[in-house]
Write a structure and sequence with these properties.
By secondary structure, this protein is an all-alpha fold. It has 13 helices and no strands.
Length: about 250
């Protein structure tokens, strides 16, 4: 209302009352205004950071609020710098990932704001993945099919197959999925619903989506149930499947 202290556009009756009290005590106009600041609410550091993030205040006001909170000299400069970097970094990373600016743009803008070069490099590494190596031409290395055949025939281990596919530019998830499907199809998989579920969830993982891969225990229980749907196998399979579905619903 009109009597609130610090109301925009006017001192208000409350401020007049406080000033009158100070005047009665013998304080000059200068000290009346200075003392009045002590009873005014100062915006919090979170408030001022949000205002700066939205640019509803300029740097002059940013500094003014921090001064009113008691920061001067080096402390003031540190707070101003931190506010600028803290609010700019997430936006720069988002703009980079959305294709609006380059990684070099991110580095240069952070440097202009005052972040040390060593810290810029560390922050970049935490947020930006290195580019995957380009998939080399078949004539320069074994093809993916040849590698998967080697895994199936046990000429190389599964881990070695994943590693070699990685050299061709596949991520570990993609490499594992490709080998799993290639070997599985050759052996007649998927034989069960859970094996099919395993494949689909692993594919989701290669696409960077949330995935809920069935446990090896559930996969084996499904195979045992298919081979021999006895009461014991049926019970174990259903219990594990229910537990899996419940866990998936919670995620």
């Amino acid at each position: 209302g009109g009597e609130e202290i610090g109301e925009p556009g006017g001192e208000g009756e409350a401020e007049d009352t406080i000033k009158l009290a100070y005047k009665t005590m013998g304080y000059s106009s200068f000290w009346q205004d200075a003392l009045l600041q002590l009873v005014r609410e100062v915006p919090t550091r979170v408030d001022v950071r949000r205002w700066w993030d939205m640019r509803t205040i300029d740097e002059t006001e940013l500094r003014n609020v921090y001064k009113r909170r008691g920061y001067f000299g080096k402390d003031l400069e540190n707070y101003v710098l931190w506010t600028k970097v803290y609010t700019a970094f997430p936006d720069l990373i988002a703009r980079f990932k959305n294709g609006w600016i380059t990684e070099d743009d991110v580095r240069s803008e952070l440097a202009v704001l005052g972040m040390p070069s060593e810290r810029i490099e560390e922050m970049i590494q935490t947020k930006i993945k290195t580019a995957a190596p380009e998939r080399v031409a078949p004539e320069r290395t074994a093809t993916a099919t040849e590698i998967m055949k080697a895994v199936k025939k046990e000429h190389i281990t599964w881990a070695e197959g994943v590693e070699r596919l990685g050299r061709m530019g596949y991520s570990p998830e993609e490499a594992d999925f490709k080998i799993r499907v290639y070997v599985g199809v050759a052996e007649g998989s998927p034989e069960t619903y859970v094996e099919f579920l395993d494949w689909t969830e692993r594919y989701r993982k290669t696409q960077g989506l949330d995935a809920h891969i069935p446990s090896a225990e559930l996969i084996e229980a499904a195979k045992a149930y298919k081979a021999d749907p006895s009461t014991e196998n049926t019970y174990r399979y259903r219990q594990l499947l229910i537990a899996y579905e419940e866990e998936k619903m919670k995620a």
